[in-house]
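Researcher: Structure for this, please.
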Amino acid sequence: MASWQRSEALGSLDSVRLLQLPRPEFEDDAHAANEFELLRNIVVRRVGMLTSIANSVLDPLSRRAPRRSNQRDEFGINKLALTFSRSASMLLGIYTGTGDVAWELFVPGWSIIDTYVIKSVVFGEPEALVLARTSEQSFVLLTINPITGKRLSPARELTHSVQSAVLLPYRDADHRRPLLIIDEQHGVHVYPAEAATLAAFSNHLKSSMYYSVDRAAGIATGYRYVSNTNAAAATTAPWHLDDAWRFVLPLDHALAAVAYPNAREHVFSPVRVTGNSTVLPKYLQPNVLAIATVQSPDNKGASFLSSDSVNIYVLNTATGAVLHHTLIPGASGPVRLVTKENWLIVSYWNARSYRNELAVLDMFEPQLKWNEYVSTHRTLSLSLSLSQYVLTPTIVSLVIGRQSHHLIVSSQSFFNKPIHSHQAFVS
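Model: Predicted structure, token format:
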């Protein structure tokens, strides 16, 4: 029996996705043979809950039995981190509660591009797609169970190129989220290539948009999905992209950071109540793109500034309209940007004051008229934006946003610093 184990793949991890672990009672329900066994499981769970409550009342000092690391805890803290290492050609599942490696999957000769969880553990056996490039420079898709690491189907070799891949926010009839792959000819491919997934994408075709950002050229382009009328092209790609709008940065702007909100995140409160009891409705628009640029007089173009400055653009990705623009004079890189709900945070270096700063922007809709309220999701401008600035003693190397369950505050932003410490900003 081995006393210890060393995994070289843990030396360089390229991506981490946190997944909810299954509850043991859900596993029992999934393996129930009939309705009577399912009802028996429910009754047993309720009796166990009443027994636990009675024991806690009679003996408050008694401790609960600890759950195993492969089960979800009461507060959802224990998760499974789905990670991969390109250099080692290996996929790993790691329990965040204990740090133990749950499973390893070695794919020799593959350069893993990314992983996409298309089916959650809530809807039965979870599924994840692994997109990779082989040593023959071809692209493959592999379906695995992200909780156990089991291969659910053989690897499928793609007959087209891959320029980008995006996971759509809605689900099909089988509770799977479609994975959209765009090839170099702007052809659109949907995976899994099943009838339910293709039908779900066809139903949302007219209400869906796609956008891309060319960091080198400083151009953001929006596209709409169009069905291929050419019969020969439709056999390989039933849909293709058609230009809808384009946003071009000025010549003296260098693109520094891009951020966009999660379209499926939970919103705990759609409004903010101020100190004078004014109700401000949040601008909860999922089609928002935040772009941070560094404007320098050294770049090409006629700049009226004598020093670097940071510009923040907020775009509506459905129409391409500029919702908000902020100029921060005397600011320069490195720039970090994160956005959640109706706010965004940008970190930068203030060359005038010789310090690191954080700028926070909150976006709101017009004030509520309870008898005739109309959402401004389709309007071209915001009604109100509030800004504040926070000082930080050291440079910020990473900014992330997270949400919590059963806590006092609903969302926080964490800042990673080069001294291996972190700081939380509560919203």
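Researcher: Any notable elements?
Model: The chain is about 10% helix and 40% strand. The first strand starts at residue 15 and ends at 20.
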